[in-house]
Amino acid sequence: MRIVVKVGTSTLAHKTGRMNIRHVESLVKTLSDLKNAGHEIILVSSGAIGMGVGKLLLPRRPEDVPTKQAAAAVGQCELMYTYDKLFSDYNHTVAQILLTAADVQDEKRRTHFENTIFRLLELGALPIINENDTVATEELVIGDNDTLGAIVAVAAKADLLILLTDIDGLYTADPRVDPGAKHIPRVERLTPEILTLGGGKGSGLGTGGMATKLTAAQKAMEAGLDMIICNGEDPAVLYRIMENEPVGTYFVGRREQA
Ligand code: GLU
């Protein structure tokens, strides 16, 4: 299977912005093992800005564009350095791809991107993708990595998109504030009711939240691609997905009518 795994800042970093070493190590170990089992893995990793905040000892996630872009420039290095080091321990080679909206909107550039991804997979490398936050400007920004994950998964003709986050999938309300919130295990169609469950923003350091995950679901499902939102607290959840266990919320991609 060709799988795109998107991991959010809430999984990769502590609230301080410093790396969550336990999560990152177990993510890398699990992805390496899935690759050893014959799956093709593409990782869409957030965390550049979050980790830049930690490394530069900034008191919080910056609001202004230059500081955000500076933090991303620092944090992206830290991210790739760590991935390269940890994946090397399991004999896997990583490749960094940084994209902006212009790269996916322009057909020629998108084709170059697709060709690179396919060649990297043929070469056995593990592409790690993020938005190029340092140059992405407001007018031309993808804006969040859930959407980027869906764009990448569709372009790479993946079989499955998995969004790892800090919550067990989609609920009828925000379970952090409403104890009566019910978990939704499966979504066959994105009805207006489901789309209103998007709610507000996610964690303090990341960009997403449920709204961007539902946008990603929409893109994926329209392209006939299945998507799962699940909790990345224990990345071993990926093994359970591979064994077809019900985990998180499963969004069923549109199938061609017979
Ligand atoms: N590209 C951003 C980063 O690496 C993350 C965007 C997001 O959180 O969705 O920090």
Q: Write down the oligomeric state.
A: single chain
Strand order in space, largest sheet: 3-4-2-1-5-9-10-8
Number of helices: 10
Distance between the first and last residues' Cα = 24 Å
Q: What Rg, in angstroms, do the CA atoms define?
A: 17 Å
Count the E strands: 10
Q: Within the CATH hierarchy, at the fold level, what is the topology?
A: Carbamate kinase
- The run of helices and strands is EHHEHHEHHEHEEEEHHEHE
Low-confidence stretches: none
Task: Work out the helicity level.
Answer: 40-55%
Bound chemical compounds: glutamic acid
Give the overall shape: globular
Give the overall average pLDDT: 91
Write the layout of secondary structure elements.
Blueprint: E1 2-7, H1 9-12, H2 21-36, E2 40-45, H3 48-55, H4 65-89, E3 94-99, H5 101-105, H6 107-122, E4 126-131, H7 145-155, E5 160-165, E6 170-171, E7 183-184, E8 186-187, H8 192-195, H9 210-222, E9 226-231, H10 237-242, E10 249-251
Parallel strand pairs: 1-2, 1-5, 2-4, 3-4, 5-9, 8-10
Antiparallel strand pairs: 6-7, 9-10
Helix pairs in contact: 3-4, 7-9
Features:
single chain, 258 residues, alpha/beta, Carbamate kinase, 10 strands, 17% strand, globular, binds glutamic acid
Task: Note down, in words, how this protein is organized.
- With 258 residues, the chain is of the alpha/beta class.
- It has one domain (2-251): 3-Layer(aba) Sandwich (Carbamate kinase), CATH 3.40.1160.10.
- The chain has ten helices and ten strands.
- Helix 3 (48-55) packs across helix 4 and helix 7 runs parallel beside helix 9.
- Glutamic acid binds next to helix 3 and strand 4.
